[in-house]
Structures are given as C-alpha cells and as structure tokens.
Amino acid sequence: MTASGPLTPAPKELTTATRKPDVVTVPARWVLALSGEGSPRSADFAASIGALYGVTYGLKFSRKAATGHDFKVGPLVGIWQAAREHAGTAVPAEDTWRWTVQMDVPRDVTQKDLAETVNAAVAKRGGKLEGSEYALRVALVEVPARRFGRILHVGPYADEPASFGAIGAALQSEGLSREPWHIEVYMSDPGRVAPDKLKTVLLAPVKD
Q1: Distance CA 21, CA 165 (A)
Q2: 77-88 burial string, b = 16+ CB within 10 Å, else e?
Q3: In a domain, 109, yes or no
Q4: What is the predicted pLDDT for the residue at 199?
Q5: What is the pLDDT of residues 55-90, one digit of tens each?
Q6: Residue 5 lies in a domain
C-alpha cells in the first residue's frame, strides 16, 4: 500500500501501453471471470459485467472488513474470440463472438472467499445481485503468463482493426505471428468519455 492508497492487482504489463506497438510478457494473474457469447450490446453481456463488478467490490469490502487488507479495483478486461478474427477492416459478426470478462484480484484470494462473497451477494434482500444467476457463474481462476503484441488504442471500439493491424505488422517484423483471439483492457468508461477519446489497451497473443 502506498500513501495514495492500495494498488490494483492488475499487472502494469496489462494496463500500460503506448500508441507504438510492442511485445510484452504479461505475468500470471489471479482473476474473477465470467464467460458468455454474442454481442457486447446484449443484455447478457451487460448483466455479466454488472455481476462481475458487484462480486469484485463485494470481495474488496468483505476482505477489508475481515483482514484490514484492501486493494484498488482495476480496469475491466475482455477476452474476445470469433469464428474469424479481425482481418484488415473486416470485423466478425457480433453473434459469432465468444467472450470472457475479468477483474484482477490479489493472489491470496481463495475459492472460499469467493463463495462467501457470492453467497452473501445473492442472498442480500434488495441488493443489486439478489438471486443473480450471473453472480453464481463468477469463477476464480489463474491466468498463466503469456507473451502479447500490445498497443494503446485511442478512439471508438469500431476503429480497433487499424490498431490490430499495427500490432500484426510489428509482430511480423520480428518474425512472429498471432493467435486468433485478443484481449481488450478498458481504461475509459464509455458512459463518461467521448468515443474519440476512449483509451483501450489491446493485446494480441503471440503464437508459440
């Protein structure tokens, strides 16, 4: 903990990037995760994000009350894969997308901690997650270390293909290629930031 408050458990390799593409190894992470499929504009996606945030903040507050240890909730992370990945300016149809949303948590969080947090959230009468099937699907998982091409994308999500193209060119220059899925780290709130000012860290996994 620093003078400015507790640090987010999300590693800097995941959250820091520039508009010049590079290659970085993101270390192993401990995350809360929830998976689904279909459009990011769907009610299912919105409910999944709501449940993930609710459980993460519930864990944060219950952990602080029980142990005195706190952590700063980091950015939402989305993992995206479709029948075919971005190619040039072509974007896969939204109904073909499969996704996982994640929030980083400290490595000493246990499955028992998660179960107690979820059970309290869904049982709380009048709470936002009362009876939530989505909250019950939140899982605690370890994400292994992996190497990625990385770039900071500034602008609308619809313009991401150009940034992925820059990542692809950077990888090719080093004799590397990418896997057909990617990660988006949402550094801006689209409800508060204009589309042309949105900041998203994009990561494309390097093919082994």
Answers
A1: 10
A2: bbbbbbeebbee
A3: yes
A4: 98
A5: 999 999 999 999 899 999 999 999 999 855 544 446
A6: no
